[in-house]
């Protein structure tokens, strides 16, 4: 996936600072694999708290992390106080990225030789990922074209920020050829932080260990359903992405799980690449845009950020082919209940 773009520099700078161990979280496992790989490169021990539902759904990503020397635990776990508290209240808790972040931060805070590394959301991660958009601009320049619209999946926001941020300045100057590029973040209807969340200060984790960040959020104790796009099961969004959305400089849409897998299969049969469930969200929105253009006769250059392959997600595709997957639009009353627990600021 795109995650080594930030895992490698984070491991490098931690090694330079004398850090010996890294703790981190992972959802679907792409970030955990990348951090395990980067830690191995620079001689760092890595411990990964993997969201329990993804730990069960994606065993081969767990195997990849272990192959590169990382320890992997299903989260919530009995390794931390926050994990033990959650398991005491609900032994069947399927986990979330916010919970896994809490466990990783709690452990790192208790050891001087350990740093916590985050794979999305934060400014430095967005910065590292802008290599995607920087390279894309050079590629478009080579072929004498420019995107009318860009679609990227959006959970914490790193892949969207990576592809979209380098186009922001061009849009501010009026865009290329007198037209700005539409920048569209695509999220699941089951975890709609941008499209249905509140723009407010909230914690980045479930237990309140992180600093408060102003972002679009569904509430730090929001528990998303166990969709197969584990990398998009996060309650909030990057503060930078959130501010741009609040200012109307980017757009967001939400798509349902079944439609995304339909798009992934369509793309696979056309291009020969099996995409990750997260990437399928961007593909769904791009296909819908192409179909609208087909009806209207409008010509558009559509650019999709394909963030990872789905070779370790075939169990999810199996369930799609067996008609065992379901759509889930998160109930409005459940979102309201979660937002009632936002921190009181000011």
State the secondary-structure class: alpha/beta
Distance between the termini: 40 Å
Q: What value does the average pLDDT take?
A: 94
Give the H and E element order.
HEHEHHEHHEHHEHEHEEHEHHEHH
Q: What is the CATH class of the largest domain?
A: Alpha Beta
Largest sheet: 4 strands, parallel
Number of strands: 10
Gist?
The chain has 346 residues and is α/β, with parallel strands linked by helices. Helix content is 47%, strand content 15%.
Write the layout of secondary structure elements.
Elements: H1 4-16, E1 21-26, H2 30-42, E2 45-51, H3 52-57, H4 59-67, E3 71-75, H5 81-89, H6 97-109, E4 114-116, H7 123-129, H8 131-143, E5 149-153, H9 158-172, E6 182-188, H10 193-196, E7 198-203, E8 212-217, H11 239-246, E9 251-255, H12 257-271, H13 277-296, E10 302-304, H14 314-321, H15 332-339
Parallel strand pairs: 1-2, 1-4, 2-3, 5-6, 5-10, 6-9
Antiparallel strand pairs: 7-8
């Amino acid at each position: 996936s795109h995650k080594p773009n930030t895992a490698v520099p984070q491991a490098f700078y931690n090694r330079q600072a004398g850090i010996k161990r890294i703790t981190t979280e992972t959802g679907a496992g792409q970030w955990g694999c990348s951090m395990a790989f980067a830690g191995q490169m620079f001689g760092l021990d890595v411990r990964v708290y993997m969201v329990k539902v993804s730990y069960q759904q994606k065993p081969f990503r767990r195997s990849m992390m272990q192959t590169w020397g990382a320890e992997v635990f299903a989260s919530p776990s009995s390794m931390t106080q926050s994990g033990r508290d959650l398991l005491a209240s609900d032994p069947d808790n399927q986990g979330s990225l916010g919970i896994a972040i809490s466990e990783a931060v709690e452990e790192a805070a208790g050891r001087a030789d350990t740093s916590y590394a985050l794979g999305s959301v934060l400014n430095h991660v967005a910065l590292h990922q802008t290599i995607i958009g920087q390279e894309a601009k050079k590629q478009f320049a080579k072929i004498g074209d420019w995107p009318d619209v860009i679609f990227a999946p959006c959970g914490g926001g790193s892949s969207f920020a990576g592809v979209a941020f380098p186009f922001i300045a061009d849009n501010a100057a009026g865009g290329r050829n007198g037209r700005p590029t539409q920048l569209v973040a695509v999220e699941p209807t089951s975890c709609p932080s941008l499209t249905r969340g509140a723009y407010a200060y909230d914690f980045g984790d479930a237990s309140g260990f992180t600093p408060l960040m102003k972002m679009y959020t569904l509430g730090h104790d929001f528990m998303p359903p166990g969709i197969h796009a584990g990398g998009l099961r996060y309650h909030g969004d990057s503060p930078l992405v959130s501010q741009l959305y609040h200012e109307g400089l980017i757009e967001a849409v939400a798509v349902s799980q079944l439609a995304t897998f339909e798009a992934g299969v369509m793309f696979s049969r056309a291009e020969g690449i099996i995409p990750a469930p997260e990437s399928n969200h961007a593909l769904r929105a791009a296909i819908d845009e192409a179909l609208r253009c087909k009806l209207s006769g409008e010509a558009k250059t559509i650019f999709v950020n394909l963030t990872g392959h789905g070779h370790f997600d075939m169990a999810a595709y199996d369930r799609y082919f067996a008609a065992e997957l379901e759509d889930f639009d998160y109930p409005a009353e459940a979102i309201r209940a979660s937002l009632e627990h936002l921190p009181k600021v000011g």
